[in-house]
Write a structure and sequence with these properties.
This protein is of the alpha+beta class and about 350 residues long. The protein folds into three domains: about 120 residues, no CATH class; about 140 residues, Jelly Rolls, CATH 2.60.120; about 70 residues, Phage tail protein beta-alpha-beta fold, CATH 3.55.50. Helix 3 packs across helix 5. The chain is elongated. The termini are far apart.
Length: about 350
């Protein structure tokens, strides 16, 4: 019985290995730039021969789509990162050093993408297309039928092609209701954090110090990599990925190359700010003031770095900001100084 089970397992492993090998070979052939009608008919016959063939091929193609995305956003073309494919022969030796080196080069490009975003390469190519003013919340329907709710004082750009869907959050926060398209994953870039989804509902907030991601429905992958040194030969670590499901959140620090573990959303619903409610769990006063500053009719500024680090769990409606500030002054050793038509100062009580 044991020998039979082992034999069956070995057969299955061998079949899966051959399937992956065939998918890799066909992918190289079909992207070689020299496909004649007979070769295309042979490929289509193989592809439609079974569901497993389709799954293996499209899984491989999805990986290359993702690499294409990061290469393009980093300003690096795939041909520049890897040598052009050789003219196709009946069998392709995928274990050759040139192929391994090309694969490594593309993985390095994947690592470079996050740095490209943070250093302005991506930002320079995609200018903000949507922008909101103080206290304005705007709903935007993108060309793929995805809907973005843009929070107050926020900026966002969307770049769509036949192969990819990319959004850059330059400032503020946004809630995404992403239309499902398995062949075109939806990417959101915010500072040095990259979020990848297929179809789901989630919120992203960008602050000077970190990026907040919270999921209402579906699954979201949050990705980071090590910060890069200025030298071109800086060592890269693989992209770190944390998967979030409905009801989970993560705060990705801009100064950290790693991601914390996902946490559970407890005090509020992701995207609750769309209905005018601001809610926080163990949030710094600096984060809270930065948020309400985007909704208040006058600028609000904290005086003193130490005060900004004090943490609160609280919630209130946008229309209750003045009431919340008054309660803050009454219950904490904090002065809230109203300068009339000018800014409001929040500082330690003297």
């Amino acid at each position: 019985m044991s020998e039979s089970t082992t034999s069956k397992s070995d057969v299955d492993k061998g079949r899966q290995a051959r399937l992956r090998r065939d998918a890799r070979e066909w992918h190289t052939v079909m992207n070689s730039g020299a496909v004649d009608p007979a070769t295309r008919r042979s490929f289509e016959a193989w592809l439609h021969a079974s569901k497993e063939h389709k799954q293996a091929y499209f899984a491989l193609e999805q990986m290359w789509r993702d690499l294409d995305f990061v290469a393009l956003e980093a300003g690096v073309g795939v041909p520049a990162a890897a040598p052009p494919p050789r003219p196709w022969r009946r069998r392709v030796a995928f274990a050759r050093p040139a192929f391994v080196a090309a694969s490594f080069a593309l993985l390095v490009v994947a690592g470079l993408t996050i740095h490209a975003i943070s250093t302005g390469i991506l930002s320079g190519r995609a200018q903000p297309a949507f922008e909101t003013q103080r206290a304005e919340i705007r709903e935007i329907e993108l060309e793929d039928s995805s809907v973005v709710t843009l929070g107050a004082k926020s900026q966002l750009a969307a770049v769509f092609t036949e192969d990819s869907r990319k959004v850059v959050l330059f400032e503020g926060e946004a809630f995404f209701d992403v239309a499902k398209d398995p062949l075109r994953p939806f990417f959101v870039a915010a500072d040095d954090t990259l979020i990848r989804v297929v179809g789901t509902k989630f919120s992203v907030k960008r602050t000077p110090d970190d990026v907040h991601v919270a999921v209402l429905e579906g699954v979201v992958d949050v990705m980071k990599t090590d910060d890069l040194a200025d030298t071109p030969d800086a060592r890269l670590s693989p992209i770190e990925t944390k998967r979030l499901t409905a009801g989970q959140k993560i705060v990705a620090a801009a100064a950290s190359p790693t991601l914390p573990d996902a946490d559970t959303v407890q005090q509020t619903t992701p995207g609750a700010w769309r209905t005018g409610r601001l809610a926080y769990e163990n949030a710094s006063l600096a984060e809270i003031i930065a948020d309400i500053d985007r909704y208040h009719d006058r600028p609000i500024r904290i005086v003193g770095d130490a005060l900004g680090g004090v943490r609160f769990t609280t919630g209130f409606q946008v229309r209750e900001i003045d009431t919340w500030l008054a309660a803050l002054e009454e219950t904490q050793p904090i002065d809230v100084i109203d300068r009339g038509q000018g800014e409001i100062l929040v500082r330690p009580r003297r």
